[in-house]
Amino acid sequence: RNFHYITILRDPVSRYLSEWRHVQRGATWKASLHVCDGRPPTSEELPSCYTGDDWSGCPLKEFMDCPYNLANNRQVRMLSDLTLVGCYNLSVMPEKQRNKVLLESAKSNLKHMAFFGLTEFQRKTQYLFEKTFNMNFISPFTQYNTTRASSVEINEEIQKRIEGLNFLDMELYSYAKDLFLQRYQFMRQKDHQDARRKRQEQRKFLKGRFLQTHFQSQGQVQSQNPSQNQSQEQSDSNTSNGTNDYIGSVEKWR
């Protein structure tokens, strides 16, 4: 079988706030083993941000203050090859180098996926998916501008801090948005070119049918009225006949 990898990216700040609200309601990732290079991380490599069964009721400040929070730069981490940086072992290489490797890996994997979309562009995402896989959805995608994340009111300082905590995701999303819109424009231009070519082929076909019918009708008239045709040929010997005039006009109109 041929498997195609696809993903949907989201604006990093909105995604981060959405995850916080999800965690605040009691969601956990305890079932996720975070297996990398054949083993899960140790408790020293990936400490927990909370004690107890879950992190329900967690304030946003506490959520942001945990340095081990996997919500930070989640999209880059989940799209990159963690084995390139020693998985969750932060002592393998300097942080700056680790971040660079993770970001480049995420960009490369995203670029080579069969398809990816953006939550903020639902209809364009649907269009690209349908064109990529030659499939059509039964109903159009709906763009919801009101979400749990959008209901959270934050000031500019909190906004900047979330962007700083997700600086890799911010850069990835900027890259993804640019690539996504390039693909969309390319596909739209291809659609217009295909439609124009089909119209040209249809006009050519109809023109051929018309000329064929016209010549057939002319032939029938000549066979029925030979004497009239002879006199017409003599009178028009110094001018172009009607068929040539018509063809010339078609050339002008085309």
From TrEMBL:
Residues 215-254 are annotated as: Disordered. It comes from Myotis lucifugus. 6-O-sulfation enzyme which catalyzes the transfer of sulfate from 3'-phosphoadenosine 5'-phosphosulfate (PAPS) to position 6 of the N-sulfoglucosamine residue (GlcNS) of heparan sulfate. It is a single-pass type II membrane protein. Keywords: Glycoprotein, Membrane, Signal-anchor, Transferase, Transmembrane, Transmembrane helix. It catalyses: alpha-D-glucosaminyl-[heparan sulfate](n) + 3'-phosphoadenylyl sulfate = 6-sulfo-alpha-D-glucosaminyl-[heparan sulfate](n) + adenosine 3',5'-bisphosphate + H(+). Coiled coil: none annotated. Its EC number is 2.8.2.-. It is found in: Membrane. It comes from the Eukaryota. GO terms for molecular function: heparan sulfate 6-sulfotransferase activity. This is Heparan-sulfate 6-O-sulfotransferase. It is an enzyme of class 2 (transferase). One of its GO terms (cellular component) is membrane.
